[in-house]
Amino acid sequence: MAALASQRLLGKVAVVTGGARGIGYGCARSLCREAQVLLADYDLGAAQRSAAELTTAGHSAAAVKCDVRLKADCDAAVAAAVAEWGKLDIMVANAGIVKAAPFLDMSEEDFDDVVAVNLKGVFLSCQAAARQMVAHRQSDPAWSGGAIVTMSSVNAVMAIPSIAGYNASKGGVNGLTRCMALALAPHGIRVNSVGPGSINTDVLAAVASDPAARGRILSRTPLGRIGEADEVGAVVAFLASEAASYMSGQVVYVDGGRLALNYTVPVPQPEPAEGSS
To answer: I need a labelling partner for 115 at 20 to 30 A (CA). Which of 69, 100, 177, 259 fits?
Structure first.
């Protein structure tokens, strides 16, 4: 799928928020096979290192600091992409955080922080991108149109009680994605979302290092393994490409079959070491 998508991204310009690491960097790697990619991240140093890795590998990439909670930062990230490459074709609104606490103990501040990044940040970054895309289309009627991809989660529809803010924010992303798809269709802009399941990021790695926790993760994953960031990135690249030219307002779940499952699956246990009792 990545190869199919990349053939349709030649000459495109993309911004990936939260692009310095994890799923965001996986999206940047998939897109930059053909597109020019701006990594917009709260951690500028990490974004610059990731952009340098892509550049060293022969791709076209740059970095900018962006706090997606701030309209000015989102506007500046879009402006930076246009200044660097002359236009913006693709926005990947990926930046997100999670804060866990028992529901009765979750603070207002933590809830607000998660919603501000995961939902408000998607609104601000996508609105900034869409405004630029609309202006571009008005000045260049031959332009093929834009694509926006938001980052949802299986937790938009499956609740975990210790991450109420995250669940609420990702459910909001699904609704916002559909609203944007309807509002922007007349302007030639498609809007879709990707909902990852258990993906091998730094956050999950810290959890999955515990054998019992890893067993729980795999017991709810029919494909029997944790996903990789590049596997999410491949679907993002597909949705951003002309291969998905008749798709808008959709959420595509990249979850190893998790949402289809209404039971847990057995997880093979490692054989005890020889001589152990």
So the answer is: 259
Edge-first strand order for the sheet with 251-254 is: 61-65, 36-41, 13-17, 90-93, 146-151, 189-196, 251-254
Q: Residue 10, exposed/middle/buried by CB under 10 A (0-12, 13-18, 19+)?
A: exposed
Token representation of residue 148: 């926006």
Establish whether 166 is a catalytic residue.
yes
CA distance linking residue 57 with residue 96, whole number of Å: 27
The CATH class for the domain spanning 2-255 reads alpha beta
* Overall pTM > 0.90: yes
Cβ neighbourhood burial of 109 (10 Å; 0-12, 13-18, 19+)? exposed
Q: Where are the domains of the chain?
A: 2-255
Is 148:89 a contact under the CB 8 Å cutoff?
no
Give the active site residue among 42, 166, 246, 253.
Answer: 166
